[in-house]
Amino acid sequence: MSLRRRFLAIASLASVIAVSSALAGGQAQASPTTPVTGHFPIEEHIAVLEPESTACGFAVSLDFSGEGTFQAFFDEQDNLLRLHVLEYTTGTVSANGIALRYEGRDNRFYDFQTETLTQVGLVFRYSLSGLGVVLMDRGRLIIENLGDGEVTFEAGSHSLFGDIGSLCAALTP
Questions:
Q1: What range defines the domain where residue 134 resides?
Q2: Could you tell me if 27 and 82 are in contact, meaning their C-beta atoms sit under 8 angstroms apart?
Q3: How far apart, in whole angstroms, are the C-alpha atoms of residue 156 and residue 138?
Q4: What local confidence, expressed as pLDDT, does residue 3 receive?
Q5: Is the pTM of this model over 0.85?
């Protein structure tokens, strides 16, 4: 599973769980005029990051943690219409004893009426002191048909859609 698809899957699942927990726990009351808001912790260890590991020919791992916030918007029948999820994460991507700094500021807007996801901002940035940015995914994506994730609009730099050779070179001793 690619990093982008993994992030989307994790973020979607975390968002649904966080919203469900807030509603089920009585922490929030859904109404058409007041969104439900909340926070959730993020902690992930990916031992073999794909497609990076396959492209580099050695295991690349990713460890990150942070916090996410959400706002859920409902209609008069308590149906979820829209969901805004913002995640701040930091960590390391590593291989061969070399660790790069990881940072993410992912900002997603789910529209369940049109089955569209709009993703804006810094999805992730890998950097190394003295070398600078090694690999970055940032900009704006519009993904329709949430089930199959068809990208219908792309602006910015989306590294995982192209060459990740710079990452492999940075992680090679």
A1: 3-170
A2: no
A3: 6
A4: 45
A5: no
